[in-house]
Amino acid sequence: MYTLRLPFYISYFFALLFIYAAVSKMLDFENFQVQLAQSPLLSAYAGFISYGVLALELLTAGALLWNKTRRAALYASFGLMVAFTVYIYLILNYSDYIPCSCGGILEKMSWGQHLFFNSVCVVLAWSGIFFIEKGRAPGWSRTAAFTALTAVFSTGTIVALFLSSEYIIKKENNFTRRFLSHPLDDEDAKIDLGFNSYYFAGFDSAHVYLGNTTAPLVLTTIDAAMRTKSELKINLENTDYSFRNVQIKVKTPYYYLYDGDVPVIYRGKLPDLNARIISYNDAFFSRLVVIDSVNFGIRTMLSGHEMYSIGSLRLKGPARVHLNPDILQKQTDGLFDSDGKLVEDPKSGNILYTYFYRNQFLVMDSQLRMLRRLRTIDTISHAQVNAVVLSDGTRKMAAPPQQVNKNMTAISGVVFNQSNLRGKFEEKAAWKQASVIDCYRTDQQKYIGSFYISNRGKNKVAHLLATERYLYVISGNELVRYRFAQPIIREFQAGDAENL
What we know:
By secondary structure, the protein is α+β, with helices and mostly antiparallel strands. The protein has two domains: 5-172, no CATH class; 184-490, 6 Propeller (Neuraminidase). Helices cover 29% and strands 31% of the residues. The protein is built from eight helices and 27 strands. The protein has a five-stranded mixed beta sheet with strand order 6-10-9-8-7, with no helix packed on it. Strands 1-27-26-25 form a four-stranded antiparallel beta sheet, with no helix packed on it. It is elongated, with a radius of gyration of 29 Å. The relative contact order is 0.10. The model has no long low-confidence stretch (mean pLDDT 86).
């Protein structure tokens, strides 16, 4: 008699389990979706899986309580528990990292304990099937076949979702971010700069160099310990120019001063504070990167076309400026729609350009030859800008544009991009309290993951600088240094961020 009642007891156990699990998810559904989006297995499908799991749990629970559907519901319970068990097994053995819990019972258990609990539930569901089929089938072949097919189907579904989700997230992302688990240690050091007008000019093994928009001829040096700040006043060879925005860049042992509105570049050698003109009247430009002491990458206006172009400025040789008009691609006006930031990866020597208003960044070699066009994970592929031409010929934005990317720094084939857009299933509160940094490889189309950098009071990230050991951030009047939690080159270049 007891064995005849056993399927009934097992059915009620699973009904209570599924109802409890479903209700706990519904009570905090937004958080459940966010946590699914952070799953290293199911990120790409967090939307429909969040609803699908709830529906399956509630439908199965209801069917378990009805005599006519109890047998089918036990098979469904067996399949669900196999799927949940395989999911946890893959998380523990094949995922890039161990995510946070998904609520309910799992919050009270470790992943290992939950794997054991699920395994027991798989055996319990199989026992219910065994006893309910005992009086129905003359042999066990059909029952064994059904349970085996159910287990294979559940396992195959989870594995297929895992493999396809990994491909979608890393190769064809649908704007679902995967937040890496502690890629940065807590702040390693900080220093009060006194003003919020500083920007990164460069770095070497012993220093970080800063420029200051309100004191454009002052080069600020921060020592490796982040304790000492020294300021050097640079003397220019000739100042008879109408400068508007003088900038400083440092690539030791040299430093450079320029203002692209005036076609002049100065160079000095540290610690000499006298800067001399090395380029005059070669090119007007709006962006510049230093390749070496006599070669530069520039963004300039393409003559006769009123649109930006990328090119090189070479101080040796008769033809100093070489433009490549095919690098930047016009979408609407060729000016605002192609605006962006030009930076160098100091380790690989590649030059990168990130569009502000579309989901793309460009990778070029040191000769400014195009290597590849890569996408960021957001979905804005066409710049949402509306430019108008005034009666005097001046171009203006007719409405505020939708900015996609704000800041970028690169090191050793990895891009750290400060995004301006909130992805799917991300909490609004987090965006008010932090800036999000997305990480990409530059040798192929591959999204690595993302992390937050908390605001400093009311100040968000204003400037970024990555080295092989640290991420430096200027926020308000503070310079903050974060140490990468693992060796960045091995982990980030692998594209999997293992153990992070």
